[in-house]
Write a structure and sequence with these properties.
GO terms for molecular function: acyltransferase activity, transferring groups other than amino-acyl groups. It holds the Pfam family Acyl_transf_3. Keywords: Membrane, Transmembrane, Transmembrane helix. The chain has 301 residues and is mainly alpha-helical. It has one domain. Helix content is 71%, strand content 0%. The longest helix has 25 residues. It is globular and about 50 Å long. It starts with 8 loop residues before the first helix and ends with a helix.
Length: 301
C-alpha cells in the first residue's frame, strides 16, 4: 500500500500565496477598474494595476494542480462530496444575504432562485460549481487514467494542451476554452506529476528562477500588447493561455520541492483559503461590491 502523502507546509504556504494573488486579481479584473483604462494615455498606475492583477487564473490552475497531485490516488466518498456541497452552499447563502443587507442586490424571487440553484447554474461558468463537478468525477477520472500506460497518458495530455492552450494562444482563431474540460486537464497534469515526475528535484534557485522568468514574460507580454493596442491580458487572462499554465506549473514545482518543515500556523491559515476563494468567486453581487470599491480606489491613485 502506498504511503499517504502528508500535506506539508510548503504546499500550504503556496495555497496562501495563491489566495492573496487571486484576491488581487478579483480586485482589478472584477472591480470595473479596467473600464477606466485609457490606452491612449498609459500611466504608471495603469501598468501597476495590470501587473498587480494579472495572475488570478494562473493561481486557479495552481489549485487544480494541487488537487490532481494529491487526489489522483485519493478516495472520495458520499460524505466528502456532501460536506463540500454544504460548504459551498453555506457561502453562497451567507454572501447573498450580506450583499442584500448592504444594498448591493435587491431581494427577488429571481435572484433567490439563482442562489438556490447556483450549483446547477454555475456549472461550466464559475469556479465553485465546476470544481464540485470535478470533485464528483475524480474517482472515475482516476480509474480511467490509472489504466493508461505512461505513453498513453502523455499523448492524452499533449492532445488536451494542444486543443485548450496552443490553439487559443497562438492561432487566435477559436477560443476552445470550457470550464470543466480545462479543470479536468489541469487535474490530469497534477496527477501526471505525482505519478511520473515526482522524483525530479530542482534546486530552489533553479525552481524559483523559472517562476521569475514566467513572471517577467507575463509582465512583458502585458507591456508589449499595451503598445500594440491589443488585449494586454491575452497571454494570461484565461486559465488555458500559455503563460497562465507555465506560471502555475513553475510555482507548483518550486513549492513542491521546497523544504520548510511543518508549521501549524501556516497549515491552519491555509485551511481557510478555500473558504476565501468561495467568497471571492461567489456571485455577481460580490463583483458589484468589488466594482464600487475598486473604482473609488482607482480614482485616488
Amino acid at each position: 500500500m502506498e504511503k499517504r502523502i502528508t500535506r506539508s507546509s510548503n504546499i500550504e504556504l503556496l495555497r496562501i500565496i495563491m489566495m492573496i494573488v487571486i484576491i488581487a486579481y478579483h480586485f482589478v479584473v472584477n472591480s470595473g477598474i479596467t473600464k477606466l483604462y485609457d490606452f491612449n494615455n498609459i500611466t504608471g498606475n495603469m501598468i501597476f494595476l495590470q501587473i498587480f492583477g494579472f495572475a488570478g487564473k494562473a493561481m486557479i490552475n495552481g489549485f487544480l494542480l494541487i488537487s490532481g497531485y494529491f487526489m489522483i490516488k485519493g478516495r472520495t466518498s458520499f460524505k466528502k462530496i456532501l460536506r463540500l456541497y454544504l460548504q459551498i452552499k453555506f457561502y453562497v447563502f451567507i454572501i447573498y444575504f450580506i450583499v442584500i443587507f448592504l444594498g448591493y442586490e435587491t431581494f427577488s424571487f429571481v435572484s433567490s432562485g439563482k442562489t438556490l440553484f447556483s450549483m446547477i447554474k454555475g456549472v461550466n461558468v464559475g469556479f465553485s460549481a465546476t470544481f464540485f463537478l470535478l470533485y464528483i468525477l475524480m474517482p472515475f477520472i482516476n480509474k480511467l487514467v490509472l489504466s493508461l500506460s505512461r505513453k498513453q497518458y502523455t499523448v492524452l495530455l499533449f492532445i488536451l494542451f494542444f486543443f485548450y492552450t496552443a490553439i487559443p494562444t497562438f492561432f487566435i482563431i477559436n477560443d476552445t476554452f470550457d470550464e470543466i474540460g480545462w479543470y479536468i486537464t489541469m487535474y490530469l497534469l497534477g496527477g501526471y506529476i505525482r505519478l511520473y515526475l515526482d522524483e525530479i528535484r530542482l534546486t530552489s534557485v533553479k525552481a524559483f528562477s523559472l517562476v521569475a522568468v514566467n513572471l517577467i514574460l507575463a509582465a512583458g507580454s502585458i507591456l508589449v500588447l499595451d503598445k500594440l493596442s491589443y488585449n494586454p491580458y491575452h497571454m494570461v487572462i484565461n486559465a488555458n493561455k500559455l503563460l497562465a499554465v507555465t506560471l502555475a506549473i513553475s510555482l507548483f514545482t518550486a513549492f513542491k520541492n521546497l523544504d520548510i518543515g511543518y508549521s501549524r500556523w501556516i497549515n491552519k491559515l491555509s485551511s481557510a483559503t478555500f473558504g476565501v476563494l468561495l467568497i471571492h468567486a461567489n456571485s455577481d453581487a460580490m463583483r458589484q461590491f468589488f466594482c464600487v470599491w475598486g473604482t473609488k480606489s482607482y480614482r485616488h491613485l
